[in-house]
Amino acid sequence: MILDAAARLMATIGIRRTTMADVARTAGVSRATLYRRFPNVESLAAQVTTREFTRIAAQTPTTDGLDSRESMIVSLVHLVRGARTHPLLQRIIELDPEFLMPYLLHRSGRTSRSQLEMIETLLTAGQATGVIRDGSPRRMATTVLQMAWSFTLTGPVFADPDDVDALDDELSELLERYLRP
């Protein structure tokens, strides 16, 4: 209920303009209740974005019948497309890009760390079966995650609005060539 209210507000007016009082009122809870759970809007925004990325990941298409490299590529491209088109992330980029800067330049958040661990696990499994090239799974996972974030955040800047989805094909090709043994 609180996260839903915060997500609606942040997607409508942005993170900076969202206040704890607004969230409490929209969620139908007292400000004291809200502050017991979240010390400030930034921590609330971090929790909301983590939840939204988790939801995108939960909608990853089934990849039965694909080898682990193909499956990983399909999943990653789905995640990139989902994040790139998500209303909240679009609004953050439009109104509050500074919210993302610490995660891009200074530290990784909980979501990025879990994404990195998931990719590393998939790479390790793929290497064991011979469908992923040799190399440090941690370094490779870091590279893959950086590619994914680049296509998510800057893809729409460099592509024509009518052609932005074609970037998904390019990302698939890039990942295929990078990961193939």
UniProtKB/TrEMBL annotation:
Domain called HTH tetR-type: residue spans: 1-56
PANTHER family for the chain: HTH-TYPE TRANSCRIPTIONAL REGULATOR RUTR, HTH-TYPE TRANSCRIPTIONAL REPRESSOR RV3405C
UniProt DNA-binding region: 19-38
Molecular functions per Gene Ontology: DNA-binding transcription factor activity; transcription cis-regulatory region binding
InterPro entries found in the cross-reference section: Homeodomain-like_sf (IPR009057), HTH-type_TetR-like_transc_reg (IPR050109), HTH_TetR (IPR001647), Tet_transcr_reg_TetR-rel_C_sf (IPR036271)
UniProt keyword DNA-binding, yes or no: yes
SUPFAM superfamilies registered for this protein in UniProt: Homeodomain-like, Tetracyclin repressor-like, C-terminal domain
Keywords assigned by UniProt, alphabetized: DNA-binding
Name of the molecule in the record: TetR family transcriptional regulator
Keyword Iron: no
